[in-house]
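Appendix B. Chain record.
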Amino acid sequence: MLKSFFLALPLLALFELVAAQKISIIPQPTHIVEKTGTFTLTSQTTIVAQTKDEIKSANFLNDYLKSCYGLTLPVKSRGTSGIIIKAGKDGKDGYTLNVDKNTVSINGNTAPGAFYGIQTFIQLLPTEKGTMLRVPAVNITDAPTVGYRGLMLDVGRHVFPLEFIKRYIDYIALHKMNYFHWHLTEDQGWRIEIKKYPKLTQVGGYRNGTIIGRYPGTGNTHQQYGGFYTQEQVKEIVKYASDRFITVVPEIEMPGHGSAAIAAYPYLSCFPEKPTYYFFKKAGNKPGNWAGDTTSKTVMQSWGVYDDIFCAGKESTFSFLQDVLDEVLPLFPSKIVHIGGDEAPKTNWQNCPNCQKRIKDLNIKGDSKHKAEHYLQSYFVQRMEKYLNAKGKTLMGWDEILEGGLAPNAWVMSWRGEAGGIQAAKEHHNVIMTPTTYAYIDYQQAKKEDSVTISDNRGFLPIEKVYSWKIFPDALTAEEKKYVQGGQANLWTEYISNSSKVEYMIFPRVAAVSEVLWTPQEQKNWDNFSKRLEVQKKRYDLWGTNYFGKN
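Structure tokens predicted for this chain:
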């Protein structure tokens, strides 16, 4: 019946049906004009690229074609047909893409703009393998809405192979995103080599076991777990990202989430003699969920928030952190450096003679809203900001850094809803929006998941909800919205221990994130997006990528 139905369709109507199915791009471009005809790509098609940056884009396209279709195209410095890449040097990172019978012209206002044009061209290619790839004739003009479009990966709770980190960066690139936020240190593991402090990875990089099930857990694996990235590997990742016009933002957590560093160097704690097991139990964990040594500092084995944070009263703490940053900063060209600043309980500081002396010496006073220790964190953050500023870097932190007075030049990453970002923007600080309500893609996607996630139904985050995210809060004036530099989705990995589950959690929600951050709010349309998403899923199949809803 279906066969005879299609045979009965008028040829013109059939052509229109096929043409309508061809153009399906995420994120939605600013302007698309469909034309008649097609461009046919074969192994004989040339790529024309002259400058170093144009060649980066050409190489990415060739790598993609080889991986997905088994094709490798010749790259030439001159030519008037084939795929011509041109990158300008001025303006917003927009591009124009023109496809006709003989030529694909990709003109970027900037080098990143040309690269984004390549990503759009990739989405014009068939979703099935083949050696003759027909691309619909089209003219596209496009540019991003915001400058910071990020995706975060937490490697502190679980560490992932170097090759998968590269694949993750490719996923960022393929969705026209341009920042990779690399969460490198945690209570449960220190993941970056620091040569002056080798115990950070020798000791801090490994935990004796991991809780089983959702926090507080139903037992412990009793298996050592860990790993880290050498500085040479970090350089490799940074270059890989740079070749895709992606900035890697490192995060070194302070003053909280420092248990792994404290395990390596106990003097960093207010109470070096108190074992990690003491803080594990104090936080409400079950004693049976612990593995191994209970008498000394060790790497934390459970998730959550713990009192054993970096001591703010010792000069040795700041010397250590400055030494760490002195090795981290040369590895990352990023102007922005993330220092965390979230979830830092002040209990130890309240009971620490060194911290109390610091409070007295600085004449820090509490008030009706907060105790003095609350404002000690502001001193901590502002001191680290001055150090980073002196090195030509800008400090970024989670919205807790607003508490007690924000460091003068700091950027705020607003995660506890939008309130922190709104406050920071009103105070004329640059903001990256990443509210849990829309951007925490470690939350479950289905009412009932087949494996443990960090959230129950209260944290249910389907793709429809992600897509409804408005990057510019209504509470801001037009002038205040200028301080919203962009947004980011975060993937925390307490319950994500392998690469396949990473893919399952980010896909297809990252497609919605990419459109939220790229396409103007007034152009967004869920019904239209959901139709394009079905084509994008076929592309995920072509990539061999795992995703939620995969058959």
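Further analysis of this model is presented in Appendix C.
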